[in-house]
Amino acid sequence: MNYLKEKLFENNIYYNAYLLCIGIVMLLRGFSITHNSITYYTLFTTGCLLLLVKIYKDEWALKEILFIVVLLAVIMTNYYITKETSLLFSFFILIGLKNIDINKVLMVILVMSVLSYSYIIGGNLLGFFPDNIIEMARNDEIITRNSLGFRHPNLLHLNLLKIYLLIVLLFHRKLNIVYFIVLFSINLLIYNFSLSRSGFFAINLLLLLILLSKNNFMQRVILQLAIYIQFILFTLTILVATVLQNTIVFTKFNLFFTGRFWYVFHQLEKPFTLFGYNFSGINTIFDNSYSYVLMVYGIVITVAFLYFYYKTAKVIYKNNNVILAIIFIIISLHMFIEGYIVYAIFNLTLFFVAKYLFGEMEVFKIREKV
After folding, report:
1. Looking at residue 294, what is its pLDDT?
2. SS3 assignment, position 100
3. At a CB cut-off of 8 Å and minimum separation 6, what does 347 contact?
4. Whole-prediction pTM value?
């Protein structure tokens, strides 16, 4: 009996250690703690130690160990070539997710996201953080975009989108018309500053799909679309930037997406590689996640991303989890114009892909009717 109590106490320690690690990650990312400060290195080291201890104390099957070793070898090969650490960082975060209640993880991310969002905007209004103002041409006129303390106006709206996605994941059963009006109003208010069309329309589409999902036909459409949407968007990205590059289609796409496909076109001029291409020193912007993962991380990692997303979405379909399917659709669409596919803190689908790989299928089941 004492042994069982000690084992339970020990498991709780490592369980909470992972949640604390996620909290530290969000603290570093969300509260703009600089990389060269003692606070950053102290918190970062603490978070890494907590995560490594959690992973070490987990019980792993031989099949899981072999899979992790192979995956880590691929990621380390990419790191050796490109010196990119983002995927490696996400890899360890996701490995530590085993046997952890995903809702508790998402709640920690939500709380820290709301606090950091309020902190940065409040700091900007009080004069502590600069408002990075961008002037640009849109629809034959010059517009002024405000970041309210974030590095870029798009980040102002991207972080709001992440908060909305987390709210829907955790509290969609409690959402009523009053909440929808409030959520839409906040989205409109932030848009007046950021003028980020991608974030604004992504949030509006999120709210619209939730409302439409009450219809049985729309449920079937949403569940089917979630399975194939990343294949469609990946193919569209490659097709527009290569085969259609000299056509009016490319011109229209590039104009509508404010020059993003011009960058995609030049990125795809580089050779396709198995493990990624080093773009350091090359003047380019990765605002499309599908060209980003293909060119920077290579064919092997791209195939892995698309395949495991597909397999996870199939499980969502089988469980008739419409809300989760909507989340997958919105994130996949938004990544068509934002390059954060390898960042687990933003690409929330990766947490569910990890649960699929661990065989924790109860995550995808609906506890109550949507």
Report:
1. 95
2. coil
3. 289, 331, 335, 340, 341
4. 0.92
